Structure to design on (847 residues):
């Protein structure tokens, strides 16, 4: 009673009007904020999300994964190793200096020095400025993904990042551990400038007055980005009107937000494949394709997408999502328990066997529950699964040790191209070349290896897509691994914040173009 | 002179204890290091080649056996360097101490609520043990102790932020800098942000304290001096509050002081629910992201903090009760 009385007194004291969005200021909450302001320090979504605010890429992906010119107006293939980019001539850095081809070359060279990015740019020999508005990217051989990688080139202000700072540090250094000039300062061409940063609390941006893209409909003058780690709190903050835009939204809360009058939800299938790898080194039975196929038939992927993910995932039985060159619409998810049992019988495992499985419990949406469901489904064909789930911090160590018979992994292709999946997940592991780095199943098929390498130099897009689809078909028939789903991305915003046109499958909302009504 | 000597001995013993505690924490922290996860996973992209990772791991000294890492750490610590945080990229001590004001104000707010509610509540339950109010208070307090902090927090946010829109759902709001101490206590916005987290945190301690006060008061009320005072015609309120309560406070300070530790443990959960930028949230973040240097420094500093609060509790007991001596407190 006393408590109630005191509460109501407090309530009276603090009762005040809710502050409404003023139309031009965006208050957004993500699950984390970037740990560094250096665009080349870490190859992660957080870094790239930030890069799209403060920098501009040469080209960028539209929602349908086609390419849109940004700082590069046009491009052309000069010879089989050279792509020429014609830059805009009206682009200014935040310092007021005009951006030229030299800045692009400087940025490219820094990318090649970054421990995280240099592997991605391995196929390139270098960049060359032809004149102020023309730059050539030269590859070591014919290379089909030059434009995909151009989405990673966000020209940095080379004068801003040159010399030493007041603490005597080289301003252009890429430092992975500890602070550096670039991890605390930004000089780009993008729609926003960082005005203040309290790491872990808030990051504030202001619109750049001299931004080149005058045709952008974007009308946001100020952004306040707050990390809110707990999904339930993030959702509550949106519903309470404390923030205008949140991401990611957990599947369990989508209904609640949709039914609220204040807010809208936008979901898009992502390009990340969630899959299980079957370790053939540890389990002899996994060497038999019939056993792997049986396991694939035993899994009800649609059921998982519907029940566990509440529709927030697309069931998958191949690695490449829609929009990727290797995607084959004919490869629909299989599910037939009777057939699975017959295959087990045929392979001589009618009585089944026991295996171990590990999965993370805080890395992917629904990860632990999906693993539990798979274990239960495999039990139907008498494969007894001893499942252990653990936090991601512990998980990757166990994964690197190949510590279980079945292991879960989610994979996003950095190049937005199918070959990346095959190179990392299905090519024969080779320490020297680095191929098959995440092929924890030790699946090895010379044909897959050969075809994947072949696609690396094919520049005829159509012929290349045919080969990629062929690989996808081999992996499907072989049941090389057990793909489960492409998880959906979900954002939510107050009704006056029109996020639909600016979000995309790569989870890098182009907030420069965001309109608040 | 004797008093001075025993005070000195007390201080020396406590200092020694503190060192012992911190060495023990360090040995444990380094022994379990390998199972805390790989911090490089947090700071490098997934597709980065293994050799790049190995190189950085070597650079950070994370590939050495833990006794070697401990020895290096102690060597650096001697020069005042307790490591650099992986996610914050700044010296760990700086990072942890920067979060201290937020946690301190949260604990302060929660303690005030506990104190203001538990003393009157406990006394009331003791002097009117059979009244409806007493039963209600005890009943509700059982509820408070059995509901997880996370649920309490979400429930309060749902009611006061989402439904009523009176209070903000997360964070600390705008702060005012008092020297190096950013405070939220002197602005309405800051106080609004503090209220829900403080109530949530206090919900853990409140039931315990109401029971403590009630128990201690019941003990005191049964004593002869209470009956004597009443027989002499002293008004009941005065007997309860001046005579009995004062004596009842002694066990409260002793037990209550030790509970500050528990309160710190619960800041982990409360701060995470409310995105409160304090040390508890920092620690959980460090654990999920395997920021090993930050975890180590947090543990060492919290160990130190425990020794200090226990010392203060002993000193307060000393001031309140002449029967307690420094000799005994050692």
């Amino acid at each position: 009673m006393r408590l109630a009385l005191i509460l109501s007194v407090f309530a009276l004291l603090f009762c005040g009007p809710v502050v409404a969005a003023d139309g031009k200021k965006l208050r957004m909450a993500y699950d984390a904020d970037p740990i560094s302001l250096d665009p080349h320090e870490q190859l992660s979504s957080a870094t790239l999300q930030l890069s799209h605010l403060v920098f501009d890429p040469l080209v960028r992906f539209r929602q349908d994964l086609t390419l849109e010119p940004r700082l590069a107006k046009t491009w052309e293939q000069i010879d089989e190793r050279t792509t020429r980019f014609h830059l805009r001539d009206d682009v200014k850095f935040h310092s007021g200096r005009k951006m030229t081809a030299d800045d692009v070359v400087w940025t490219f060279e820094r990318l090649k020095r970054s421990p995280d990015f240099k592997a991605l740019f391995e196929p390139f020999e270098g960049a060359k400025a032809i004149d102020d508005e023309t730059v050539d990217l030269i590859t070591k051989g014919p290379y089909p993904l030059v434009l995909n990688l151009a989405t990673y080139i966000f020209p940095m202000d080379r004068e801003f990042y040159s010399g030493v700072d007041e603490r005597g540090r080289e301003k252009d250094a890429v430092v992975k551990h500890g602070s550096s000039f670039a991890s605390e300062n930004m000089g780009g061409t993008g729609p926003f400038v960082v005005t203040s940063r309290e790491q872990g609390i808030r990051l504030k941006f202001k619109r750049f007055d001299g931004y080149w893209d005058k045709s952008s409909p974007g009308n946001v003058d100020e952004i306040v980005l707050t990390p809110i780690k707990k999904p339930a709190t993030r959702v509550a903050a949106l519903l309470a009107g404390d923030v205008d835009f949140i991401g990611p939204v957990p599947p369990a809360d989508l209904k609640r937000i949709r039914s609220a009058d204040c807010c809208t939800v936008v979901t898009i299938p992502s390009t990340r494949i969630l899959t299980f790898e079957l370790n053939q080194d540890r389990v002899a039975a996994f060497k038999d394709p019939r056993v792997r196929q049986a396991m694939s038939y035993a899994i009800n992927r649609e059921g998982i997408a519907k029940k566990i993910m509440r529709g927030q995932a697309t069931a998958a039985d191949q690695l490449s999502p829609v929009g990727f060159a290797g995607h084959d619409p004919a490869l629909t998810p299989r599910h037939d328990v009777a057939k699975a049992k017959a295959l087990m019988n045929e392979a001589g495992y009618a009585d089944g066997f026991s295996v171990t499985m590990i999965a993370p419990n805080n890395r992917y949406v629904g990860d632990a529950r999906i693993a539990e469901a798979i274990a239960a489904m495999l039990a139907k064909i008498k494969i007894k699964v001893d499942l252990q789930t653990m936090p991601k911090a512990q998980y990757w160590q166990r994964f690197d040790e190949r510590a279980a018979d079945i292991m879960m992994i989610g994979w996003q292709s950095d190049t937005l191209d199918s070959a990346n999946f095959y190179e990392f997940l299905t090519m024969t592991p080779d320490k020297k070349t680095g191929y098959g780095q995440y092929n924890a199943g030790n699946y090895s098929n010379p044909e897959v290896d050969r075809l994947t390498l072949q696609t690396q130099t094919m520049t005829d897009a159509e012929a290349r897509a045919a080969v990629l689809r062929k690989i996808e078909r081999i992996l499907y028939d072989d049941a090389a691994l057990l793909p489960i789903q492409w998880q959906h991305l979900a954002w939510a915003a107050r009704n006056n914040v029109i996020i639909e046109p600016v979000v995309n499958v790569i989870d890098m909302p182009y907030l420069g173009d965001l309109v608040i009504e | 002179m004797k008093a001075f000597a025993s005070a000195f001995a007390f201080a020396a013993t406590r200092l020694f204890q503190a060192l012992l505690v911190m060495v023990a924490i360090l040995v444990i922290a380094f022994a379990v290091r390998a199972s805390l996860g790989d911090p490089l996973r947090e700071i490098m992209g997934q597709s980065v080649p293994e050799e790049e990772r190995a190189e950085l791991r070597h650079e950070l000294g994370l590939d050495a056996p833990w006794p070697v890492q401990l020895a290096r750490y102690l060597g650096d610590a001697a020069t005042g360097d307790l490591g650099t945080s992986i996610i914050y990229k700044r010296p760990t001590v700086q990072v942890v101490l920067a979060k201290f004001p937020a946690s301190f104000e949260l604990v302060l707010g929660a303690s005030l609520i506990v104190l203001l509610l538990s003393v009157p509540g406990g006394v009331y339950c003791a002097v009117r043990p059979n009244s409806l109010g007493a039963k209600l208070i005890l009943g509700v307090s059982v509820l408070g102790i059995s509901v997880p902090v996370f649920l309490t927090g979400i429930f309060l946010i749902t009611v006061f932020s989402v439904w009523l829109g009176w209070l903000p759902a997360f964070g600390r709001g705008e702060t005012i800098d008092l020297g190096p101490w950013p405070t939220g206590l002197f602005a309405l916005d800051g106080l609004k942000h503090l209220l829900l987290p403080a109530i949530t945190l206090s919900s853990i301690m409140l039931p315990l304290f109401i029971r403590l006060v009630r128990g201690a008061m019941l003990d005191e009320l049964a004593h002869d001096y209470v009956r004597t005072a009443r027989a002499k015609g002293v008004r009941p309120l005065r007997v309860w509050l001046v005579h009995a309560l004062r004596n009842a406070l002694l066990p409260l300070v002793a037990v209550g002081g030790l509970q500050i530790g528990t309160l710190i443990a619960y800041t982990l959960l409360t701060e995470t629910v409310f995105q409160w930028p304090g040390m508890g949230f920092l620690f959980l973040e460090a654990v999920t992201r395997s920021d090993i240097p930050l975890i180590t420094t947090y543990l060492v500093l919290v160990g130190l903090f425990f020794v200090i609060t226990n010392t203060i509790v002993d000193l307060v007991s000393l001031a309140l009760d002449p029967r307690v001596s420094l000799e005994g407190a050692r």
